[in-house]
Amino acid sequence: MSKYNYFAKKSLTVLLEEAEGVGEKINLKKTLSASSLVMLGIGAIIGAGLFSITGYAAANNAGPAVTISFVIAAIACAFAGLCYAEFASMIPIAGSAYTYSFATMGEVIAWIIGWDLVLEYAVGAATVSISWSAYLIKLFKDLGINFPVQYALSPFQTYTLEDGTLIYGIINLPAAFVVILMSLLLMRGTQESALVNAIVVIVKVGIVLLFITLGWSYINPSNYTPYIPENTGTFGEYGWSGIVRAAGVIFFAYIGFDAVSTAAQEAKNPKRDMPIGILGSLAICTLLYILFAHVMTGLAHYTEFKGIDGIAPVATAIQKTPYQWLSRGIIFAILAGYMSVILVMLMGQSRVFFSMSKDGLLPPIFSEVHPTWQTPWKSNLLFCLFVGLFAAFVPGHIVGEMTSIGTLFAFILVCVGVIIMRKTQPNAPRAFKTPLVPFVPILGILCCLAMMISLPFDTWLRLIAWMTLGVIIYFGYSIKHSKIGREQSK
């Protein structure tokens, strides 16, 4: 056996054959149009970040200038999005950044990014489901339904009732329930999932537009003074450092547009539709985010958002208007928004592992497709169990920032990959080309790296620990079953 080549690459020809299902008895069903892909992107993007993190970032980091933070984060995402769009038009295959890395940097880098994407998709889905549970309980309370709080908290959480009674969590049943529900929908079929997602997206975008439209007339201009609060002397607390820190924090709000690329193999015309889905969803959500943040910090002074979480920032802003009923509408929008985020995250995770399994880096069960539904149903089932247990028993705040740092790392590697592919295969067909290469990818790398650096040190430690576990699995299982590795040994 020859020396193992950890940086062996998959050729573009082989990847395109896989995209067309050459040699495969069963392949993923092509059902998604450009509009479906845009809806998937919006469904994944609009969620926790818009309704919750906006108030937190304004109160603790940027003040009214949180709108600038959204612009910075959007620019970083746009650079990465342009790179994703080029790859998605070239290599229309499930797997997203994992597949792109395999084509440009080799197997070991592809494994690292594939394992890293678990932080974005599976862990992200669990985190969002935990938040979904909290909002559902709030809705029940508003409707006069008494749901036992201990069954909506993990065993590591406590909750103090209004009378001072301390409640200890047992299991987060609503969080596990929504994961199971979305997983079953994904198993049934991508087309059905896309239809449900489109309906949900229409509902939550409608609520967001309603908040912006109704709230605009009640903006108090004095709340924007000073627009950039003076720095306290600590990095990240107002001033320009606060704006950058806020950009890193609210970056979580943009996570999801890249999940569109994981559905490339199920797109009807991926070379045309993938760039539309990725860049279209990113552009629409960026505009909504900036307008939402502008209205929110205009209705209430940013200091009023201190020490409050969840729905409270938006509710505080709504109290400055006569439309108190809108608070309940926002809760419905959040619940709907979270469901679509969970749906797309779970889909993205199963598609990444689908590609890794077909390459032999993970067990075959992750790439087994249902003969009727034509979905990787066993993979969906396994992630339903994993994410469901995580959501039921682990507090959400532990891994929220891990999702952001994992995604930023993925974006950096995709930007690097575009530069490498332009050098190694300059004449390869590209339905969409990233403009100003290498300028745009380099800016994407620098922006994402700056936001990674701005995140807390303990988040880096968790990332290192997670990636160490991935390396152990790679050397313990993957290199022994890798298809490229087996071909080398012949």
Summarize the topology.
Layout: H1 12-19, H2 34-45, H3 48-62, H4 66-90, H5 97-104, H6 107-120, H7 122-142, E1 158-160, E2 166-168, H8 173-188, H9 190-216, H10 239-250, H11 270-299, H12 312-318, H13 326-358, H14 377-393, H15 400-424, H16 439-454, H17 457-481, H18 483-489
Helix pairs in contact: 2-9, 2-11, 2-13, 3-10, 3-11, 4-10, 4-11, 4-15, 4-16, 5-6, 5-15, 6-7, 6-13, 6-15, 6-17, 7-8, 7-13, 7-14, 8-13, 8-14, 9-11, 9-13, 10-16, 11-12, 13-14, 15-16, 15-17
State the main characteristics.
single chain, Amino acid/polyamine transporter I, mainly alpha, 65% helix, 490 residues
Concise synopsis of the structure shown:
With 490 residues, the protein is mainly alpha-helical. It has helices at residues 12-19, 34-45, 48-62, 66-90, 97-104, 107-120, 122-142, 173-188, 190-216, 239-250, 270-299, 312-318, 326-358, 377-393, 400-424, 439-454, 457-481, 483-489; strands at 158-160, 166-168. The longest helix has 33 residues, at 326-358.
Q: Please, could you describe this protein's structure?
A:
The protein has 490 residues and is an all-alpha fold. Helices cover 65% and strands 1% of the residues. The chain has a single domain, classed as Amino acid/polyamine transporter I (Up-down Bundle), CATH 1.20.1740.10. A two-stranded antiparallel ribbon has the order 1-2. The radius of gyration is 22 Å and the shape is globular. It contains 18 helices and two strands. α7 (122-142) runs antiparallel to α13 (326-358) and α15 runs antiparallel to α16 (439-454). 56% of the residues are buried. It has helices at residues 12-19, 34-45, 48-62, 66-90, 97-104, 107-120, 122-142, 173-188, 190-216, 239-250, 270-299, 312-318, 326-358, 377-393, 400-424, 439-454, 457-481, 483-489; strands at 158-160, 166-168.
